[in-house]
Amino acid sequence: MALLDVRQLDVRFSSRGKAVQALRGIDFSLERGERLGIVGESGAGKSVAAFSILNLIAHPGFIAGGEITFDGHHLNRMSERQLRKIRGDRIAMIFQDPMMTLNPVLTLGAQMIECLKAHRRISTREARQIALDKLNLVQIPSPERRLDQYPHELSGGMRQRIIIAIALLLDPDLIIADEPTTALDVTIQAEIMALLTELCDTQNVALMLITHDLGVVSQVTRRTLVMYAGRIIEQGPTREIINDPQHPYTQGLLDALPQMATPGERLNQIPGAMPSLNNIPPGCAFNPRCTFATERCTREVPHFVSTGGTQVACHMVEAMLAKEKAHDTV
């Protein structure tokens, strides 16, 4: 049984008397110790998918349908009190900006000890020792001194390591990392992602990494979901998706990486922009931006077809596979 199983997840936001869909029929699973990447542009629905798992979607958002199962427990059927026992304990989150997570008026030690005592019946001395152990685990120098410091006294990279240490305090089964390196420079980004990878391998923690950067995903995850306008449009082993993307949108994301552009020239970009939730195009939502779009793409939502180890929702790929199959039977 998968550690996390999401089936037909439908999330909506009330707007001017009607509900618009942010997620439409999302299906995915995550095994223990597995590293999963979720990629796409801003507005694709990546963070909404992550927040839905622990029902952290703020009003006017709500889960309209589907099932979220974690280790056999149906999360979207739980009360708020039951969910509090899982949040931070068995499922931990790492957010984009550590200063939005850390309390600026409390020392790091006070925050870590408070977190531990909220979930465990332990003494302050025991909690402080666990906090020290976790700071050592994420390679924080002089951990004893750091516990008595305030967030503003640390660098951005150090604060992000603190957030990872807090996420590990209660030995979770799953860490959800939402753009964990966005505000950091490239060198620190690499260090943080290497640290997360090492921790997942040594602690057998599953990781769900949400990012817009396929370059980061290629270095960290084993499997990837590509999202567009609230749907998954391609999924499979990360290496296959990076080396041989099937969906035109995935190819566009790869072409937009800085290393894919000719030095001295403009970066490649996908024409157009992500559609707003109240104006999703009919058929394949990517069709207005796709150079391969046909009339069928404007009226029919594509279903998943398998090609190699990946699944892709694209009429063009479906047509090519059908043509190849017909040729093979001749």
UniProtKB/TrEMBL annotation:
Entry-linked Pfam families: ABC_tran, oligo_HPY
Gene Ontology terms: biological process: peptide transport; transmembrane transport
Domain of life (superkingdom): Bacteria
Positions of the ABC transporter domain: 6-254
Gene3D superfamilies, per the entry: P-loop containing nucleotide triphosphate hydrolases
Matching NCBIfam families: oligo_HPY
PANTHER family noted in UniProt: DIPEPTIDE TRANSPORT ATP-BINDING PROTEIN DPPD (PTHR43297:SF2), OLIGOPEPTIDE TRANSPORT ATP-BINDING PROTEIN APPD (PTHR43297)
Record protein name field: ABC-type dipeptide transporter
Taxonomic placement: Bacteria, Pseudomonadati, Pseudomonadota, Gammaproteobacteria, Oceanospirillales
